Each structure stands twice: as structure tokens, then as C-alpha cells.
Amino acid sequence: MVTKNEIIEIIFQSIEDINNENGIDIAKDVNTKLFGSDSELDSILLVNLIVAVEENIEELSGKYIPIADERAFSSENSPFKSIETLADYIKTLLDE
Amino acid sequence: MNILIEKLKEYAEFPAIIWNNKFYSYNELFVKYNEALAFIHLKGVNEGEVVSLIGDFTPNTIALMFALIQNNNIIVPFNSTIKDSEQVKFDIACVQKTILVNVVNDNYSIELRDDQGDHSLYEIIRERKKPGLVLFTSGTSGNPKGAVHDFSRLLAKFSIGRKSMSTVNFLLFDHWGGLNTMFHTLSNGGVVLTLRDRKPDSICAFIEKHKIELLPASPTFLNLMLMSEANKRYDLSSLKLITYGTEPMPLSTLERLKKAFPEVKLQQTYGLIELGVMRSKSESDNSLWVKVGGEGFETRVFNGLLEIKAESAMLGYLNAPSPFNEDGWFMTGDEVEVKGEYIKILGRKSEIINVGGEKVYPQEVENIIQELDNIAEVTVFGQKNSIMGNIVCAKIRLISDEEKKVFVTRLKIHCKEKLQSFKIPVKVIIEDEPQFSERYKKKRQ
User: Fold this and answer.
1) Strand B192-193 relative to strand B15-19, pairing
2) For chain A, what is the total number of helices (H) and then of strands (E)?
3) A45, A48, A59, A73: best mutation site toward chain B, by most B Cβ within 10 Å?
4) Which of B16, B241, B353, B366 could serve as B382's disulfide partner, Cβ 3.0–4.6 Å?
């Protein structure tokens, strides 16, 4: 069973990779906004982050979880609001 | 065709073929041609029948090819050994008889197939009383398409004598590139130099041994040769010209090639199974700008896509709609940039990756990745993505082991300097599998 904290760690790790690769400094904070007008990430960076998280989750749990599918975008509460909401969303997907 | 036979007599005692390290003269080839002609008559191969010829550039395979041309057959060449996936081609081409050449001892035999050889395109050739040639293109969907040629039109250009350089027959027997080299060589008194093993070291050893002047190859092969440094292990000073085609050349490979062979002329070729090989001229040795055309070819660019009108064009596909427009222009599907008389081939329109409405040419990204150290091969492709429509992915074979994270960071930082962000691979897959086919061509699916 992967815990929410482990998921957050994975997201932080992924953010660190993205920061290193792009020479940027996105804060490793559960309140960091991932998507929307007050987010530092453009759509390309968001896609990169999601793919990195998917790969790291797969490495940890052995399961490939597509994070950015139709459901993620159609849900009323976007999982990409913040790192916190993303971690919750991934936890739900993993527990299914 | 008679002209080709005349050439066999004209060059009489000169060497025509080196096969299994043994010379065969034009006289010997002429004798084998007569034997082959007698054989097909004896076996009741009638004019206009569809005959597959399975072999390689062996003396008897070449003799049989000449005999089948003389007998006005519709010829479907195959490389020995046939793969299971190729069996479908016999049905597509409605093959009536198969001649199988044993590529070890050069003996041959014939088999009948249960097919009538009926196709409307074949009727045109039969009415003209000409030989035919069927070549297969892999097609974007992976289903082979059979291109039907009036063989006499493809052969017409060989009646004009041109200088023949000593050439290694690197390209394969079942494609026009390979056949074109063979016919060019034989119609100009040259020697067909052929070997089964097309690995870089074998080819380089062969060039050294026979003092070969011209190497026609694919960019993938040239890249592997440079990577393996096979060219440093042999004396290749006889080489005067390296031609490259069949797939786009990465600029980084071309530049490394120029560095390795400063005295050798580097020339891009452009040919299509549907049209034949055009004459071409590269702007310079290390330039991808090329002028294509020559006698019998007209070119134009429409909506960024190259279109060609050719006298030697095929009649059509056996199993696909005609790719010609009503005025006879062939839509190549190749996206090009234009600079005066020169064009630069960007890639197949069908391979372009659409990332959030922006176009990404796989070759452009591959080109940049190839600049990095420790890259054996790279293939860039698109993958569906719900945010961007598609994302760019890169499959990489490394020369020596490297920690994935270290490598990916290195790759992304390099790409960021050279490419817009949407072109940078999001997913990087590291695999040990070679990414090229037996034709030394990059496998794209």
C-alpha cells in the first residue's frame, strides 16, 4: 500500500527532476499550484511533471496509473489544483 | 533490353561480378544468361507471366533477371531468404511461378503457384509487350503495397553510357536502389561487387580488398559504421564518393562523416519505389540541401509537399488507390523546405507529431539528440496525450551503460538549448534493442 506521504514524496522528487532539467525553481510545497492562472507551470511543464510522476509511481508500485486521462479533466474538482489535490487523486486511483 | 545483352557481349572478358570472392566475366554472365533463357523456355514460362525471382546478386540470379526481362515477364524480385511476413506479397502480386536461387551454390529451380496472374495493370504491360517489375513499399500502415512498373521505362536510362565507379552493391536485391546500382554497373562495364554480410566491418574490409570507389548506403548504416569505428580499422583511401538515401540523414551524422572522410564527396540521393531514382546534387558535402530532377523528372512543391512527375513512374499500385493526381503528379508525402533550386527534406508528413497544434519533425529532434555522447541510436515518435494531443517520446540505445536519471537530465538540458520546449522529448525510453532493419534503415512503426 502506497501512502499519501509517499505519493507526495514522489511528486516532490519529480518536481526536483523538472527543476534540474529546466533550470527553474518550482516550490516543493503541498500548496504549489500546478495548473491555472496562478501556476508557475505552463502546459508543457505540467505534461512533463505528470509523466515524471507516472514513471516514478510505476517504479514504486509496479503499477502504471494514467493520471491525466479524461476523468481527471472532467471532474469538477481538478486534481491539478495543487500538489495536495494531485496526491489525493493519485491515492484514489491507486486504491481502486 | 537488347542493349543490356549487347553490353554483355561488348565487355566480353572484363570482370562483371565478384561473388563469393570469385570473379565472373561478362562472357560467363552471357553464357549463364543463355542457360537461364533456355531454362525458362524449357519450363514453359510464357511471355507476360508473373514470375517471382528469389535470390541475391549472384551470377545466376542476375542471369535469370536478364532472361526474364528478355522474355517479357512481370518480375517480382525477393531477397533470399523469404520471411514469413513476406508471404502475403506473393498473393498481392498474383505470382504464377517462382524461381528460387540457392544463394550458397547458385543452383536454381522453379515452382508453380496456383494463381492466374490477373490484374488490370498487368494487362497494360502485356499489351505493350514489355517486361514488368513489381516492387513493394512498406506503406505507413505496415501493409505492403505492390508498385507495378513497365520495366522497359526504368531500364531506358541505362542505354546512355556513363562513367561507372567501382561500387559495392550495398542496397538489397528486392529494391530499386540495389537493382539500379546493378544495372548501372553492368551497362557501363563495371563490376558488381556484392557480399551477403552487410555489417560495418565486413563492408569496410570489402572496400579495402577491392579498392572500392563508391559506397551507396543508408544514414543508419553510416552512423553505425562511424560509431563502431570500423572505418578506422581498414584502409578506405580508395573511396571517392559516398551516397546516402532511403531515409533522412541527420545533420550530425553527415558532419561526423565529413570529418571522418574529408577527401570523399558526399552526395544525397532521392529515389522512390514508385518513380525510380532521380539524379541529384547536394549543395555541398556537409549540406542537406539537394537539387533533384534530371532527365525525365519534373518536380514542384505544393503546400510544402514535394510532388514529382516522372517518365519512369509506375503504372499504379496492385492493392491501393492511385497516388497520382489527374495530371500525373505523384504526391510523395515528403515535407520539404525550398531554397532556390534546392530542397531540404524535413520528413514524411505522416510522421509529424502534432503537439498542441505545433508540428514536430521526428528527424529534427533525433538530429539534436544524436549530437550527445554515448548515443548509438535514437528514434523519436509521438504518443497520445490528453493534455497536448500528443507528446514527443524518444527511444534510445546507448553505447555504454549510463544511469537513466543522469542521462535524461543531460538529454533534456542539451535539447533545451537547441529546441523549443514542445519539441523536447517528455518520455525517454532506454532500450538495448537495435532500432534498424536488415536494410540498415530506421524502423518506424
Assistant:
1) parallel
2) 4, 0
3) A48
4) B353
Residues B204-208: contacts with CB under 8 Å, at least 24 apart: B204/B230, B204/B231, B204/B233, B204/B234, B204/B236, B205/B234, B206/B168, B207/B168, B207/B234, B207/B236, B207/B238, B207/B239, B208/B234, B208/B235, B208/B236, B208/B238
Which pLDDT score, from 0 to 100, does residue B373 have? 94
Per domain, the residue ranges of chain B are 2-155, 352-430
Give pLDDT tens digits for B61-84. Answer: 999 999 999 999 999 999 987 888
* CATH no. for B2-155: 3.40.50.12780
CA distance linking residue B50 with residue B439, whole number of Å: 25
Mean pLDDT of successive 10-residue stretches along chain B, which has 445 residues: 84 91 94 97 97 96 97 96 87 97 96 96 97 85 86 90 85 90 92 88 95 93 91 96 88 92 94 88 92 89 93 94 92 91 88 88 92 94 88 95 93 92 94 86 78
Q: At A22, which CATH number? A: 1.10.1200
What is the fold of B352-430? GMP Synthetase; Chain A, domain 3 (3.30.300)
Domain count, chain A: 1
The partner residue sitting opposite B422, judged by closest CB among A17, A44, A51, is A44
User: Structural domain of residue A62, as residue ranges?
Assistant: 4-95
Distance CA B97, CA A23 (A): 65
d(CA B340, nearest CA chain A) in Å = 36
Distances, alpha carbon B135 to alpha carbons B131, B224, B235, B273, B346, in Å: 14, 27, 36, 7, 25
The answer, for B409 touching chain A at a CB cutoff of 8 Å, is yes
Q: Which residue of B has its CA nearest to A80?
A: B387
Its ipTM equals 0.88
**B442 Cβ partners below 8 Å, 6+ apart?**
B220, B247, B377, B379, B435, B436
For every residue of B27-57, DSSP letters joined together read HHHHHHHHHHHHHHHHTT--TT-EEEEEE-S
